[in-house]
Amino acid sequence: xxxxxxxxxxxxxxxARQDGLDQRELRRRExxxxxxxxxxGYVLIAPAGLGLAVFYLWPVVQTLYYSFTEWGxxxxxxxxxxxxxxxxxxxxxxxxSLGNTGIYTGLVLLGIPISMALAVLLNIKGLRxxxxxxxxxxxxxxxxxxxxxxxxxxxxxxxVGILNHALSxxxxxxxYWVSDPHTIRFAVAVVxxxxxxxxxxxxxxxxxxxxxxxxxxxxxxxxxxxxRQFFSVTLPLLSxxxxxxxxxxxxxxxxxxxxxxLIIGANTTNALQNPAFGEGQTVVMLFFQxxxxxxxxxxxxxxxxxxxxxIMALTAVQFRLxxxxxxxx
Amino acid sequence: MRExxxxxxxxxxxxxxxxxxxxxxxxxxxxxxxxxxxFPLVWEVLTSFKSFGESVRVPPTILPAHWDWSNYSKVxxxxxxxxxFVNTFVMALLRTAAQILLCSMxxxxxxxxxxxxxxxxxxxFLAVLMVPGQLFLLPQYQIMQDLGWLDSMQALVIPGxxxxxxxxxxxxxxxxxxxxxxxxxxxxxANPFTVFWRIALPLAKPGLLALxxxxxxxxxxxxxxxxxxxxxxxxxxxxxxxxxxxxxxxxEYPILMAGSLLATLPVxxxxxxxxxxxxxxxxxxxxxx
Lengths: 329, 289
Description:
Chain B: One of its GO terms (biological process) is transmembrane transport. Chain B: Its main location: membrane. The complex is a heterodimer. Chain A is mostly helical. Chain A has 15 helices and two strands. Chain A has helices spanning 12-18, 23-66, 83-89, 92-109, 111-122, 130-142, 145-156, 162-169, 184-209, 213-221, 226-254, 258-263, 277-280, 283-292, 297-325, and strands at 69-71, 77-79. In chain A, strand 1 (69-71) and strand 2 form a beta hairpin. By secondary structure, chain B is mainly alpha-helical. Chain B has one domain (79-285): Orthogonal Bundle (MetI-like fold). In chain B, 73% of the residues lie in helices and 0% in strands. Chain B has 17 helices and no strands. The longest helix of chain B is centred in the middle third of the chain and has 32 residues, at 81-112. Chain B is globular. The two termini of chain B are 39 Å apart. Chains A and B meet through helix 2, helix 5, helix 6, helix 7 and helix 9 of A and helix 2, helix 3, helix 6, helix 7 and helix 8 of B.
């Protein structure tokens, strides 16, 4: 830290000349450094590498193995081949949770246009108070999901929730949003969107700010109006960021747990009394239940393995499709 | 917003006051959005000051009839809130410090040091980055159980100390630094660790800060892992504690709101204080760990 980085150091070759070293001597020194560096490379990587190997990489292999086994009553596993996967295919609970997860993901993706609109507005040159707006939109992103669930459950409350009160003033009868099988998915997705809009907005805003102003000037010179500029300049140049945002949103939504778990009340003992439990349950919730409460670890492992394959497949499809709409400048 | 046209009046538009005057539709939309976004949080604050009776009144009151602070003290009676607060803080802090140190070491080696097998090892890191978190949980739990670490601080902290994401993020930062700065020190005989510690690390401060803030946030809000490994209320962090509070005192919403706010407050403070680094970190990484 004591070294002053502002002084530009001499080029190595120049230094060597000053020190009176010839080229061969310099090469020899460099080789010696590289030899010594090699060991430092391993030493620096070892702590992180070993930790990741033990706690992350090896567990993936183990989970895959578990998915072909059955968990005995007293621990210990026995190989049962594809049996877990066969059970999975015939398990209506699994298909329902998969469907719920898919709907949630689709609905959360609908939030991206909102993030986009906000980012475009915040990107207007000369607009004041952008820091202010950014802070507000970002607050849900940093709020603890447990806290988010508490307040939304209350807003959604069928009897005393403010949502139903607001609806009643315009003559609409509300429902018990999080225990009504017809509404729970939407109720949860609204919160999902609420929590992610600020996050996606920041990503898109960074993308917008990286578009050079010259493009707009050129388009304007060609007589393009504001709308035309948006579709011919902004959208194509932002498409890599939009793509990135979409891929991330899909990956994260497919793994949704905290929010849904807390909102449908799965943390409470009477969760199963929630008549909408089945319509709200997601894949990761099912995994959590099977692996850690029903003691069916092999089955739980099979569930997350299928989820993993699904995420990979969907991401691959998106990368395929990107050729059709993503333009890299 | 037609400022880009070749209009003879163009120079006048550069005057701030005039432009700002025409931006009112944008302000209206943004304010409307902000109000909708913040409303649930404001409602949480207001409800936390209401008595239970008032919170269930129909029609609802907006402002509390009288500000009742007792919900905040009741939080401490309902769960070991103080203990859980300490747990959360220690967990988040240790994870963050360890990640900054371990990730930056590995990231520097990947970015600057050539050694056999580097590409392959990096591929291993990338693989971890791509796998969804649930795939680790069962064996991780198994390890904790075998070590006898269930219901302990080790269980909360140790797996969270390692991060492929953090290594990847910091590697990007180190790759962006001009190499000449380090070469000089090396020719003077400094070993790679010294160069890393004295030169590269201080220069990567924005990256370290971004990683630190993000890790702190994710650790603070982490729910699933604590739910699995620490079931003793005194050993839980706040996220899990709040979840259990919701189960046990289902109807006491004002207390729940007070607890939620107290639990979220530290992150909000960090966020507001370090907003720029926060947003830079998000924009730079674009990923969740």
